[in-house]
Amino acid sequence: MPAEDLYRRAKDVFLRICDAPADARDAILDEACGGDDELRAEVGSLLRHDDEDGAFGDALPAGTIVGGFEIVRVIGSGAMGVVYEARQRTPERAVALKIVRGGAVSPSVHQRFEQESIALARLQHPGIAAVFGAGVDQESGAPYVAMELVRGIALDAWAGDGATSLRDRCAMLTGIADAVQHAHQRGVIHRDLKPGNILVDGEGTPKILDFGIARLTGDDTEASTLRTLPGQVIGTLAYMSPEQAAGDPDAIDARTDVYALGALGYELLSGQLPIDVRDASLPGALRAIQDDQPRRLGLLDRRLRGDAETIIATAIDKDPERRYASAAAFADDLRRMLRDEPIAARPATTLYQLRKFAQRRKGPVIAAGVIAATLVLGTGVSVAFGVQAGRQRGLAEQRFEDVRAIANTMLFDLHDALETVPGAVDARRQLVATGLAYLDRLAQDAGEDPALLEELAEAYFRIGDIQGNPHRANLGDAEAALQSYATSIELRRRLATITPSDASTVALARTQLAAAETLASTTRAGELSAQLRIAIETIEGVATPEAEGLRVTAEQRLGTALINMGQPDDAIEHFRLALAASERLASGGDPMLVRRLTIGLNGLGLTLVRLGRPEEALPYLERSMAIRAETARLNPQSARAQRDLALVHHRLGDVRRDTDDADGAIEHYRAARDILATLAGADEADARAQFDASVAEEKLANALLDGELLDDARRGFADALRRRRQLAADNPGNELYEMAGAIAVERVAHCDRLLGEHAQARDGYRQAIATARSGLDNDPGDVRLWTVVGVAQKGMGASYLDATDADPAEARRWLEQSAATLAAMRQSEMVPTRNTLTEARLNELLVRCERP
Predict the structure, then answer these.
(1) Is residue 814 predicted with pLDDT exceeding 90?
(2) With CB atoms counted within 10 Å of each terminal CB, which end of the chain scores lower, N or C?
(3) Helix 166-185 with 254-270: angle, nearest 10 deg
């Protein structure tokens, strides 16, 4: 990687690890560097330097002159520099002098110190340590900042001395918020408020220090120099806001500091952190900050129930829109509470609390509790709805809206929260069933109301996704999904006659596309290509960006369907159409459209590989790799970005394998396997993640098999089979998992045969043939299943030839069956997905049957 990027990443890792115990560093390094040997070596060098000389260099001795300031003694030390007590000659006064040491002097560090001096120079408030001067020492080249020397104790030490009351702590928090508001009014966001950056002087006044990672707002050029990169996390984890943890620089504003104030208040009042991440790994800590909910203060201390609990909860709400808009608003509510006046913040509504409660994802016990509470509420609404005819119209309409709200809450907010909860499948099914009952009731009274028709159509569409869309997390009930999509399509067609528009046409095509996608996992998969063409025809002539994007997806899906039907020559035309449209859409740089472009590049590359033209595929796949690798680097916590990178590793592995570059193929497949296994391990309830991991194991195992690493290959195939059998058990009737299981069984049997374990191999081949034939009864056009049958039959024949008790007659019987399967495929214009199923290879084996 470029030297500048390497240094920046190494410095970020060093700052996380430098204060960790020596025996814990290796584990942290493994996690932070993620297999990047170059990065690990650079961080190790910095750590060794730090161990020998202190962080980036020795402390300066007393009497040293830096920028006109005479050093007296060290009063503090951090990874980036040392803080000294120093004397300023003119005017005569003691100051705190912060100096960067040794190797940390780089352009970026100079920039950070310049940033801090600009920030502090703007601030003149009793609650903020004043800046007296800043610059770069001419002799040493070290940047420095001279500021007010605060003689006091850290905020947490002040609060922990046992002499402060809850009222005192609230008053202290008010003073800190006032100082933060002063900074915000001058365009400075601190971004690292924590007890160690706040001293309490002898007068009991808080003083905020260290604006070294402050971000300045406004239009002045100088003030905008220090910008957080997308995906870069800056701040102290325990007090970090969710938007900081997400690494989104554009989401950082004054409310980021409001969150930190709330976290400080939580700790001041309760003695505990709102989200305790001190012992968590970095990915675990960032996830917890974004997803986990703190315990209510009133549960920790009964005295904090009521206003104090509500004020702090408002300040640390995950959603910035629900927090106090400013530090001043936070301080004002604290003052109202101290004066026993009504506060501006109010506890969240019951419905909002239910939604947030579900989002905690603590497990099936909580899931059941959420559902029970929701159904009780829904039942009450339903009863009220049933007697609406006897009440006034306004009340009846309100209850109608209540039913509408509760149906949407169950189908969207609560289901989404439960989607990844282990053991919650039955609970999710119950939610969907109850939500559908409400929807059906609403649909009866929808009339010609366009708004309600649109809402119902979207709700049934979403239900279909939840029930069985294979491209989304689903409950495995594809037939029910198709019924819901059909209802949505009917509603959208009614809507199109009432209020025709491009938007309604696009929505109709989107639902048709979802229905087509779902057909792939049913007994009606043969209808898939026709349904995709219907969706494409629906949006023909609509020129909106959304329609163009939908057309791209439909063309890509159609190309994939044609590949699976053994028609790669026809597929390539649709992938080229999709890619051309993707190029136009992605030219503006929108991340979603750029991602869609990479999907098109991958699809075309895969098709060229299937056509035996891997060299032509390579440029498309390498371009996709470059885009996705950069996206994954900038978004290390994004599961989708990491998965996307793994999938293009698969494609490049396929090309390397087809060009006989075994080492290159294994390298790509192993990289994909490692990424996808990590994602699967993070959430065992995510069916797609488990299936992805099984595919990765299978691909790597095939490459290992090419290299005759039979034991390693068999272990990989067996792991793929284990995952697929579990998926099939959890999702009975899902054709995809059954088909994939048949492939894995055949691969394990193949390894057994090569290892000389023929009885076991034959059992496996028979299982694979039976499972594949069962699938073909439902979908006779699936080339993958035909290939499994033919390859397993060939394997049986080879086994009867290779065994010590060879049986040429039985071998011939199986090989002739394989040849018949291959002939049937060719008659249907199918190309086998395995290049070992060929007439030439079968003839070679049949010749062996004639030998003594």
Answers:
(1) yes
(2) C
(3) 170
* Rounded Cα distance, 325 and 323, in Å: 6
Residue-by-residue DSSP string for 323-368? S-SSHHHHHHHHHHHHTTPPPS--PPPHHHHHHHHHTT---HHHHH
**Structure tokens that stand for 91 in this block:** 């005017």
Q: Using the 8-state DSSP alphabet, how is residue 72 labeled?
A: E
Indicate which residues carry an active-site annotation.
Answer: 192
Considering only residues 38 and 173, tell me which one the structure prediction assigns the higher pLDDT: 173
Concatenate the DSSP letters of all residues of 170-188 into one string. Answer: HHHHHHHHHHHHHHHHTTE
How do strand 152-154 and strand 198-201 relate by DSSP bridges? antiparallel
| 522-549 tens-digit pLDDT | 666 567 888 888 988 888 888 777 788 8
Query: Quick check: bond before 294 cis, omega within 30?
Result: no
The angle formed by the CA atoms of residues 386, 387 and 388, to the nearest 5 degrees, is 95
**Is the Cα torsion angle 350, 356, 359, 364 positive or negative in sign?**
negative
Report the distance separating Cα 388 and Cα 382, nearest Å: 10
Amino acid in the structure at residue 5: D
User: Residues 256, 191: contact at Cβ < 8 Å?
Assistant: yes
- How many CB atoms lie under 10 A from the CB of residue 143? 25
Please say whether the beta carbons of 655 and 618 come within 8 A: yes
Best CA proximity match to 382, nearest among 365, 407, 364: 407
498: enclosing H helix or E strand:
helix 478-498
Distance CA 556, CA 199 (A): 60
Give 558-603 as a DSSP string. HHHHHHHTT-HHHHHHHHHHHHHHHHHHHTT--HHHHHHHHHHHHH
Helices (H) and strands (E) in the chain, counts: 34, 11
Q: How far apart are CA 723 and CA 744, in angstroms?
A: 10
Tens of pLDDT along 715-730? 999 999 999 988 888 8
What's the pLDDT tens digit per position in 9-58? 666 666 556 555 555 567 667 766 767 777 777 677 666 544 443 333 45
Q: Is the pTM of this model over 0.70?
A: no
Q: Specify the DSSP element, H or E, that contains 38.
A: helix 37-53
Contact 353, 322 (CB under 8 A): no
Q: What is the per-residue pLDDT for 334?
A: 93
Q: What number is the average pLDDT over the span 186-209? A: 84
CA separation for the pair 161, 38 (Å, rounded): 47
Question: Among 616, 542, 609, 605, which residue's Cα sits nearest to residue 576?
Answer: 605
Query: In the structure, what pLDDT confidence band is assigned to residue 212 with cuts at 50, 70 and 90?
Result: very low
